[in-house]
Design brief:
heterodimer; A: 253 residues; B: 271 residues; Rossmann fold; 2 domains; 23% strand; globular
Chain lengths: 253, 271
């Protein structure tokens, strides 16, 4: 009982600290845009460097959707709806969630360890001593870069996934190409796309925030940086799935 | 700008106490760094030398007492006041603390880009001049990972002086250097002080190196100044702590053994 309470108050305390840190970052976001070069570099780091893994996973997730969706739909004789099923599944759910999980593992860890190493090697302190706010110079561009990169990555994941489903459904299992695409076109609505977009923005915010928070507050030792990286992945993944439930419930209500 | 009188010390630490977690790091510490001089702060590891630097730079506040830099009470400054103060101070970190994602040139240019809007050709000339001063103009395009420890520290020194500071603080500048690099750093500290008139504070435990260039030395022990004076006076002092430190004796007031139960009893398993 006491242990449970301690854990709860610890979690609340951390949530408060993360929220305060977010306020600090948001305050520095506009000033950090004064040098757009840094932001562009971070979008490249978080986005372009995660591209291969996101596309590869998107392809396979789409292909699995093609197999499973076909198996399910043909029991009801409606395999022509495969396009809709795959597209809705990807755009609303699988795209944002899996991209966020991949992002946490690829970009999140690299952000956390990079900032953690800067802490461990006194680079952040040195900036403070040179009268440069490290939150403005280091944290804000990396945070914004992650928030911008996530929806872009999700869109690419969705597109590649739909291509994968088409590859299996149409190419291998013989669903008619015309009905695959036309049903998708008529059934997927703007609000489905928006739902996916809003989800991926929220996940981008959560994952980037956790990565920069853990990195910035890591113990200045090799062990501390390692721990910060681990915590980044774990909290990002949990947060993504919890947020996903909350957002889905909100969109369906 | 708050300009201190010429005879007023650049840094004055008055009766400063600093406690953290119930442990007193400093207990009534007083020292000063006079304009244009090299002041050495000596002491064994763990005496809070780095804490002293953090107090001077305003990164932490004293529990009691006062730290004045350029005549301003550091603890009373808000963040922007502190940042304004720090622009007049250069600091050399133990390991250089170079930005790992920038090359040598950009590292030295970093403070200029952050605080000034100099036209690029002028900025370039300034950076090259500072790199020339530390002998690393030829390494301008290297990344920090491609530098030796001594070179990294020289780049950090070039960065520390690029804003032409009035006060330069060195945190353990000699640690882990080979004799050649050590000689280079020593000569640089001295020539920067002599040619630019920069007031310097050098925190170190390398007694013999610093004694060759320091004007004034303070030896810290037990949260206080154990001895102060010209380096020669320190060597001649008859206090046991000073004697142990200056001559590198393994045992003395700073004991060789960490307090432990009786040796014989513990070996016999009775404890």
């Amino acid at each position: 009982m006491g242990g449970g309470l301690d854990a709860l108050s610890g979690a609340l305390l951390k949530a408060g600290r993360v929220a305060l840190f977010l306020m600090r970052i948001l305050g520095q976001c506009l000033p950090s845009l004064a040098t757009p070069r840094f932001l562009v570099m971070q979008v490249y780091n978080a986005g372009a460097r995660s591209l291969i893994i996101v596309m590869l996973c998107g392809l396979f997730v789409g292909m699995v959707l093609g197999l499973q969706g076909y198996d399910l739909l043909q029991r009801f004789g409606s395999e022509s709806a495969l396009g809709v099923a795959a597209a809705l599944g990807l755009v609303k759910e699988l795209g944002p969630v899996i991209t966020a999980l991949l992002f946490a593992g690829r970009a999140g860890t690299s952000l956390a360890s990079e900032i953690g190493l800067m802490r461990a090697t006194d680079q952040l302190t040195a900036m403070e001593m040179m009268a440069v706010d490290p939150v403005r110079r280091v944290v804000a561009p990396r945070f914004l870069g992650g928030v911008i990169a996530m929806p872009l990555l999700t869109a690419i994941f969705d597109a590649v996934g739909i291509f994968g489903a088409q590859l299996i459904g149409v190419g291998l299992l013989g669903v008619e190409s015309g009905s695959f695409w036309s049903q998708m076109q008529s059934a997927v609505e703007r609000r489905d796309i928006n739902e996916g977009l809003i989800k991926s923005l929220c996940f981008g915010l959560a994952c980037s925030l956790m990565a920069v928070y853990e990195g910035y507050h890591s113990e200045p030792t090799a062990e501390g940086v390692g721990l910060a990286t681990t915590r980044t992945v774990v909290t990002s993944a949990v947060l993504t799935l919890v947020l996903d439930y909350i957002l889905t419930a909100a969109f369906l209500s | 700008m708050n300009v201190a009188a010429p005879d007023q010390p650049v840094v004055e630490v008055r009766e400063v106490s600093y406690r953290i977690g119930g442990r007193a790091i400093f207990d009534g510490l007083s020292l000063q760094a006079r304009r244009g001089e090299i002041t050495a702060v000596l002491g064994p590891s763990g005496t809070g030398k780095t804490t002293l630097l953090r107090l001077i730079m305003g990164a932490i506040r004293p529990t009691s007492g006062q730290v004045q830099v350029f005549g301003q009470d550091v603890a009373r400054l808000d963040r922007s006041g502190l940042f304004a103060l720090r622009r007049r101070v250069g600091m050399l970190f133990q390991n250089g603390a170079l930005m790992s994602d920038l090359d040598v040139f950009e590292n030295v240019a970093f403070p200029l880009r952050a605080h000034t809007r100099l036209p690029e050709p002028l900025l370039r000339r300034l950076v090259l001049m500072k790199l020339q001063a530390v002998g690393l103009r030829g390494a301008a395009e290297r990344m920090p990972a491609e530098l030796s420890g001594g070179m990294a520290r020289r780049v950090a020194l070039a960065r520390a002086i690029v804003m032409d500071p009035e006060l330069l603080i060195y945190d353990e500048p000699f640690v882990g250097l080979d004799p050649i690099s050590l000689g280079v750093i020593l000569r640089l500290i001295q020539s920067l002080n002599a040619t630019l008139g920069i007031t310097s504070i050098v925190v170190t435990h390398d007694v013999h190196e610093i004694s060759r260039i320091a004007h004034e030395s303070y030896l810290l022990s037990g949260g206080k100044v154990a001895a102060a004076g010209r380096p020669a006076e320190l060597t001649a002092a008859d206090s046991p702590v000073v004697n142990q430190f200056m001559n590198g004796l393994p045992d003395g007031p700073v004991p060789f053994h960490v307090p432990a139960p009786d040796y014989r009893e513990q070996l016999l398993g009775r404890y």
